[in-house]
Amino acid sequence: MPSPVLVVDQLRTEFPGPTGPVSAVDGVSFSVDRGRILGLVGESGCGKSMTALSIMRLVPPPGRAAGGSVHVEGHGDIMGLSRSRMRALRGGDVSMIFQDPMSSLNPVMRVGEQMVEGLRYHRGLGRREAFERAVEMLHLVGIQNPQRRVLEYPHQMSGGMCQRVMIGMALCCEPKLILADEPTTALDVTIQAQILRLIHEVRERTGTAIVLITHDLGVIAETAEDVCVMYAGVIVERSSVRRLFAQPLHPYTSGLLRSVVASHDDAAIKSPLPAIRGSVPSLSELPGGCRFSDRCDHVMERCRVEAPVLTEVEPGHEVRCWLYPADQQPSPEVNGARETRRADVEA
Amino acid sequence: MTLGWSSRLGRNLLGSKEALVGAVLVGLFALASIAAPWVSPADPFAQDLAHRLIPPAWQSGGSLQHLLGTDQLGRDVLARVIHGGRITLIVGFACAFIAGVVGTLLGIVAAYAGGRIDSLIMRIADVQLSLPFIILAIALIAVLGPSLFNIIIVLGLTSWVRFARVVRAETLVIRESNYVEAVVALGAGKWRIIWRHILPNVASSIIVVATLEVPRLILMEASLSFLGLGVQPPTPSWGSMAADGRTYLTIAWWLTTAPGIAITVVALSVNLLGDWLRDALDVRL
User: Fold this and answer.
1) Do B3 and A116 touch (CB under 8 A)?
2) pLDDT of residue A335
3) Which residues are CB-contacts of A35 (< 8 A; sequence separation ≥ 6)?
């Protein structure tokens, strides 16, 4: 019986907008089991980073949480936790790593010092103990000469090494869940491969669940097992990685896959790069009905009028699109929980 | 194995010539001030009207008994410079310290509190900067009475503004930085962030401001003493000595020049030391 470490249900995060509040995260639901890697993929501005920040309850003001629940194993719904308990959670059972490793480390603190700080706060270790554990963590993330590196400053390390340090810091207190927000975007491709491999190793060794946020489908293909595709604040398709790449259902997903050039395909290289027409709408000016309707090649009348709901088309593969109408029971919004709701009947 | 910053300073100081000079000079003046009663060749208060206005030892008419000559009341100038250094250095460093602490605190509070509190603090700062310092000082000393303690309060409390502005601006930037975001995601609370992440990063700016403030405060003390608002005679301070020597400038130049050179040397040394300190604490160099 898979045990979810994280269950996100109808999460909403609002920002004040020119014509009223806009939801950067609009009813997002997913769950992650122990030891699984879930990919959250989408373009810039689709709300994937904001989803992670919302889970950590670190939404920058003037944004605010506007609904939904986030259940973390052992902590219940964390949306209602007090500030001090949230602080204990962050870096404890739930960790987050960020996009640009070089700027995610305090430039005037030695790397070991930053790790020690977290360890002493969360685990109450003494200085010496914490220091030794920090060296251990650096070794775990594949840094050579950890005893020497631990005394270095961030500017003395390369981007890849800094990201390893960040991963080490995130792992210090043996979290149940790691939210990785574009961990490889700021790194070059070869280092990217190493970091992704490291993420896999970490999962193997510690059984930590990982939510991997990225705009790069290649990263998803290589590293994640399940994936949610986001667009304009909602999940438009959810499935296993294998099924998504084999048979993408949502027009947005197929558009994304088409726009990646296959390097071995000479004909594709010479022809113009296929792109999804139009551009991502501003959240305060979303098209009526389906959010993707003004860019979709398969748009129908219904799409402009009525917003589709997430429907399970095959086991484990859900899509939010009127191409797959919900004549049958619409899917449960949350993976794993077999709740059913009344079908949305076509008007 | 040491993770602290203090270990780097010792090694670095020996490497920079300018810093060494600055450190040595400040050190000398500081030592002389502390050890004044033992180091001073004479009693700075002892008047000897028979030997008024004796020129420095190397001039004709000078004597080795009074290396820098005597003033209009026959008091040994060198002794007065050494004792006067106590007042001046105390004022300079103590005020910079008070202003630094108060200013940094207010700067961080303003940056973190935002809104009304921020506006209030910054408006007070603006008002204070726009008032001519001397007028403010005169008013305050008139109320509090002239004394060393009161000057320190007055100068300290009116100099916080430069620190506060710089610290506030930097805090606002650092708060939004990626590494603070990362540490918040690892569970750090406000105070831990201020103490361990913001302060070390604003430290270099604070040092630069302090480097500029110490000489300025020394000169301010000199001005106040010049106007009679500072330490009262017969207590020597470099400022009051320079003021008193004005009348005799054409016939006894050493009365003003000796304290004047002392002020200049200390100001220069503090600048050199401050520059070095800022560079030494910067881990990226």
Assistant:
1) yes
2) 39
3) A203, A207, A208, A209
CB contact under 8 A, A104 and B201: no
Domain region containing B83:
10-281
Q: Looking at the complex, does the CB of residue B10 fall below 8 Å from at least one CB of chain A?
A: no
Task: Write the residue in B184, B185, B196 that is nearest to A117 by C-beta.
Answer: B196
pLDDT(B119) > 90: yes
Q: Domain map of chain A by residue range?
A: 1-102+176-252+310-337
Write out the H or E segment, with its range, that includes residue A189: helix A189-206
In CATH, A1-102+176-252+310-337 is 3.40.50.300: yes
- Smallest CA–CA distance, residue A188 to chain B, in Å, is 20
Q: Is B135 on the interface with A (CB under 8 A)?
A: no
Instruction: Inform me whether the C-beta atom of residue A59 falls under 8 Å from chain B C-beta atoms.
Output: no
Could you tell me the CATH number of the domain that includes residue B155? 1.10.3720.10
Looking at residues B44-62, what average pLDDT do you find? 83
Contact of A96 with chain B, judged by CB distance below 8 Å, is answered with yes
- Asked whether residue B275 is domain-assigned, the answer is yes
- Token pair, residue A59, equals 């939404």
Residue A110 in contact with partner chain B when CB distance is under 8 A? yes
Shortest CA distance to A219 belongs to which of A170, A275, A272, A180? A180
**Residue from A81, A105, A108, A185 whose CB has the most chain B CBs within 10 Å, to mutate:** A108
The total domain count for chain B is 1
Q: Which residues of chain A, if any, have pLDDT below 70?
A: 1-2, 261-265, 268, 326-347
Alpha-carbon distance of A172 to A85, in angstroms, equals 18
C-alpha dihedral over B143, B145, B147, B151, to 10 degrees?
A: 20
CA–CA distances in Å: residue A289 to residues A250, A321, A338, B206: 15, 11, 27, 56
Q: What is the pLDDT of residue B9?
A: 63
